[in-house]
Amino acid sequence: MNSIKKFAKDKVMKLSTKILIVLFVLSLPAAIYLGQFVVSGIKPIDGGFSISFDTWAYVGIAVITINGIIGGILFIRFLRTQTLSRVIFFSTLPLSLIYGVGVYLLTSVPRMTSPLATSVRSILNISTTNVYNTVLWVVLISIAYIVALLLMYMFICRPVNKIEKLLSRLSDGGLKEDRLNIGKSKQFKSVEHSINKINYNYKEKDNKLKQTDLEAQKFIPKQFLKFLGKSSIAELELGNQVKKTATTLFCDLKSATEMSRSLSLEENFNFINSYLNVVSPIIRRYDGFVDKYVGEGILAVFPRPQNAIDCAHAIVRTIEIKNKSHHDLPPVDAKISVHTGEVIFGIVGEEERKSPTIVSDSIDLASKLEDINKFLHTKIIFTQSVLNEVSSRYRFNYRYLGSLSLDEGTSLPLFESMEVYPRDRREKLIHLKSKFELAVRKYNDGRYAESAREFEELLRLVPEDKPSYIYYNKALEKANKEDY
């Protein structure tokens, strides 16, 4: 009774529901009154019934049908305002009453003497002497009742199954849907609201975690995590390390002396930082990551040497374009060295302050290559190990620069990329590549006089080639010493 009162007094009851209640109340007396015309039109006869409806009977059927439809709609809306236990009770009550009345009538009809009972006995073929048919009809009605109950429970409990699936998906992660629909009953609406709230909170936390992860990637790049075999920053532990072959790129952004003199320290810092903001995205574009910023330089790591070479070309070209936009300031000169070797990726520090880093001889080598870059006035140089690891299908123009003497008494062959020079100069250098490399080898072999003559000839053809000019002066100087 409280449920019915609550349904009738619900402040948020829809206007359509109020209209249906009024129509149901108004049509119910008419349906009851006109029902007698329908009943009177059904007359029992031997072997069944004869139907003879007049106009009022047909009107009665229409009114009863309309009243039944309206009552069914109101009953369904009433159930939606109830909890699951009450929904089950009120849903099965009418069906149980019908089943109970049906069984009672089946067992009572064989003993009744009215014309109506006689017609029913004739149709159903039941009697006091034919108990088997009576039992059979009771069994059939019972089966129909059980099937109807099963279907009704499946329909009523469908939101429960949906909740089970949604909770299972929630336990594995957030749901893609922004709004979940579970059921129409009041109780399920409350559960639906709670699950939607959980899903919303999960998504909010997930978005915050992703945002935090994106912010953290500014300090610990995702490529660094890949090298360590980790998928999240939370998985990093002190002492994590792995040794892999990787390519390091050191880019030194050197500006003219005049700039340092003309700008304050703050202006100088901001100026260099503006170039770093241009170079760093290029490194990420070529699948590399910045390991550290060293003053005016950047140490980056790449999984493949061809990515590092392509990145070096892109950096030099971009710096040249950016220089043109600073007409009032001296240009910045990018000196890039590339080396491939074994690198240890690891987490160092202590539990309260962990820091990702790489350990490799590439770092010490980078400073030596930087000195050679400055000395020869080249832009991009790389070691023999880069050529050894680069794909055989990768093509670019380069030339042999000589060998770098290491502390162990060994030498490291060095090469220069010619791709970043202007077209006319590049074509000349490519054409004279063999001649240049021959002159370098003569210099390495100590044949300084011959080397000086070769470089002198090269300078007549390409006077702007700084490496040839440096080599010529050094070879000439050493050749003159030998004469003395």
How would you describe this protein?
This protein has 484 residues and is α+β, with helices and mostly antiparallel strands. It folds into 4 domains: 2-165, no CATH class; 166-215; 222-418, Alpha-Beta Plaits (2-Layer Sandwich); 421-484. It contains 18 helices and 10 strands. It has helices at 2-8, 15-40, 55-80, 84-108, 115-124, 131-156, 158-172, 186-217, 222-228, 257-262, 265-285, 305-325, 361-376, 384-389, 423-431, 433-444, 448-461, 466-483, and strands at residues 42-45, 48-51, 241-255, 289-294, 297-302, 332-350, 353-359, 380-383, 398-405, 411-417. The strands form 2 sheets. Strands 3, 4, 5, 6, 7, 8, 9 and 10 form an 8-stranded mixed beta sheet that branches. The protein has a two-stranded antiparallel sheet with strand order 1-2. The N and C termini lie far apart (124 Å). The model has no long low-confidence stretch (mean pLDDT 79).
Main sheet, how many strands, which sense, barrel? 8 strands, mixed
How far the N terminus sits from the C terminus, by CA atoms, comes to: 124 Å
Overall morphology: rod-shaped
The CATH topology of the largest domain:
Alpha-Beta Plaits
What is the residue-averaged pLDDT? 79
- CATH domain class of the largest domain: Alpha Beta
Low-confidence stretches: none
CATH homologous superfamily of the largest domain, by name?
A: Nucleotide cyclase, GGDEF domain
Percent in helix: 55-70%
Strand content: 15-25%
- The number of helical runs is 18
Give the CATH architecture of the largest domain: 2-Layer Sandwich
Q: List SSEs in N-to-C order.
A: HHEEHHHHHHHEHHEEHEEHEHEEHHHH
Radius of gyration: 46 Å
| Number of individual domains | 4
Instruction: Look at the helices and sheets and give the structural class.
Output: alpha+beta
Query: Quick one: how many beta strands?
Result: 10
